[in-house]
Amino acid sequence: MSVLVVARWTLLEARRRRLVLAGVALSVAFVALFALGYALLYHDQQRAVVEAEVLGAGVLSAREELLAVSSLLLVLGLYGVQFLGALLGLFLGVASVSPEIDSGALHAVLARPLSRLQYLLGRFLALAGLLAAYVLVMSGALLLTARVVAGFTPGDARRVVGLMLLEVLILLAVSLLGSTVLPTLANGVVMLALFGVAWLGGILGFVATIPPGNELLANLGTAAGLLLPADAVWRGASFHVLPPSFLAATSLAGGAQDGPPFVSTAPMAPAMLAWALAYPVACLAVAVAAFRRRDL
Fold this sequence. Notes:
Elements: H1 2-16, H2 19-55, H3 59-94, H4 98-103, H5 105-110, H6 116-150, H7 157-181, H8 184-208, H9 215-227, H10 230-239, H11 244-252, H12 270-293
């Protein structure tokens, strides 16, 4: 019960600081801008298909291009959602514990019949709920926009959203761990650096897939993914957005990535998925152990 009480305090604190209001306002603006841009670009491409049909040349390729454009626009929108969700997860985790220690407010909180484990789990539960709601609403809005405007639905939308949820939970857990052992400013710098390294590892992995390939770059990308599997999880999610025709075309091209460098035309490796699922649990376990030993 104490865990739920801490979670409630955390949610009330977020509302008092107007984090929820600011998040809702920015999210509405993002979805509106995406819907407008998606509709305009899709209808422009659709007119090109109609013109191809009138001329009687290249109709099939034009329709395939329309499908590819629809999916890539959706990937771009979801990439924006996961990027904003990732930053939100990092910032919420960074500001979860160490600021309370620095200000001395945690002395009064833990003076009550409340263990450090309950406090930490309560904070994580509340912040994870906020992030999950953000990802669900935002990704759902973008998926709905693609379906209404273009009639396009990813092959496995539930897996797309599930992997995006896993990504933000990974970032929240690792930043919460940092908040139990590092000062706020230092933790923020370290978390942003880790996030940048993970993103760079994904880019290196993309470059390694371009024929003739580069094993060293591929290994560096894998190492960065093991250090922080956030970008690897996003790439796994992006695979399930792309249509089968696009994936087949890239496969026939010898494995070359014809899409943007932040998507993947191959599913997430089972070993990497297992590591990504275990990662937030391991971070929370280490955070609890570190928080118990930390002097307040």
